[in-house]
Design a protein that fits this description.
Blueprint: E1 7-11, H1 16-28, E2 33-36, H2 44-49, E3 58-61, E4 64-67, H3 69-79, H4 92-117, H5 121-149, H6 163-172, H7 175-182, H8 193-203, H9 206-211, H10 215-234
Parallel strand pairs: 1-2
Antiparallel strand pairs: 1-3, 3-4
Helix pairs in contact: 1-3, 1-6, 4-5, 4-6
Length: 235
C-alpha cells in the first residue's frame, strides 16, 4: 500500500520543466520524494522511466512513470482533485485559453530566451527584442482579459498559483537574473505594466521563493550554456 501511494519526482535543479511539476505538487499539497538527476550523466533509472526522451521531469505514481511537464501537471490536477486548488479552471473555454497561452509562453517566450542565450551581437539583440514583442502580445491579447476575469485576484488562477501562473513563473520568474546576464532589460514596467506586476507577484509567492535556486548558481549555468553553444557554432 505504501508503494501505491508513493510519489517520486525525478528532476534537475535548473530545469524549468521539472520546476513546474515541483511547484504544482507543492501548491496541491501532495507529499513527494525528489530525485536529482545529472543530465550530463543520466542514471539507468531515468532512462528506464523515460526511454523515449530520456529526460526530466518524470513523475512516478503508483510505480508508474508519467513524462512531460504539461502532461504531468494535468495528471496531478485530475488525480488529486480534492487536494488544494485546481490548477486549471472548470470552464472549458477558459481552460482552453489557459492552455493556449501556456503553450505560447513555452514555444515563443522560452525558446526566444534560449536563442538569446546562445547567440551574440546583432543576432542576440534581435532575439531579445523579439522576446519583448512576444511579452507585449501576451499582455495585450491574453493577460489583460485573463486577470480581469480573475476579478481582482493576484493570479490568473485566482488566489493561488495555477497552470499558466506556474508555466510563466518557471520561464520568466528569474527575469532579473536574465537581465543581469544579458546586460539589458527584458521586462520593462513602462511598456508592459500588467505583465511586470504579475511577474513580481508570481516570484514573491512563498512556494516560488522557497523553490528558487541561488542567483550565482543560475548565472554560472547561463554562462556555461552560452559558452557551449558559441563554441559549437564556431566549430
Amino acid at each position: 500500500m505504501a508503494e501505491q501511494n508513493r510519489v517520486v519526482l525525478h528532476g534537475m535543479w535548473a530545469s524549468p520543466f521539472a520546476k513546474r511539476v515541483e511547484l504544482a505538487l507543492k501548491i496541491k499539497g501532495i507529499p513527494f520524494e525528489y530525485v536529482e538527476e545529472d543530465i550530463q550523466n543520466k542514471s539507468p533509472e531515468l532512462v528506464k522511466l523515460n526511454p523515449v526522451y530520456k529526460k526530466v521531469p518524470v513523475l512516478v505514481h503508483n510505480g508508474r512513470p508519467i513524462c512531460e511537464s504539461v502532461v504531468i501537471m494535468e495528471y496531478i490536477d485530475e488525480v488529486w482533485k480534492n487536494n488544494g486548488p485546481p490548477l486549471l479552471p472548470q470552464d472549458p473555454y477558459r481552460r482552453s485559453q489557459i492552455r493556449f497561452w501556456a503553450d505560447f509562453v513555452q514555444k515563443q517566450v522560452f525558446e526566444g530566451l534560449f536563442l538569446s542565450m546562445t547567440t551574440e551581437g546583432e543576432a542576440q539583440e534581435k532575439a531579445i527584442e523579439e522576446v519583448k514583442e512576444k511579452l507585449k502580445v501576451l499582455e495585450e491579447q491574453g493577460l489583460k482579459s485573463l486577470l480581469a476575469e480573475a476579478e481582482g485576484s493576484p493570479f490568473v488562477n485566482g488566489d493561488e498559483l495555477g497552470f499558466l501562473d506556474i508555466v510563466t513563473l518557471t520561464v520568466l520568474g528569474m527575469y532579473e537574473i536574465h537581465e543581469e546576464f544579458f546586460g539589458m532589460k527584458l521586462v520593462e514596467e513602462e511598456k508592459i505594466p500588467i505583465m511586470y506586476s504579475w511577474l513580481n507577484r508570481l516570484k514573491e509567492h512563498p512556494v516560488a521563493k522557497e523553490a528558487g535556486p541561488p542567483k550565482e548558481k543560475v548565472l554560472a549555468l547561463l554562462q556555461f550554456i552560452r559558452q557551449k553553444a558559441l563554441r559549437s557554432t564556431a566549430a
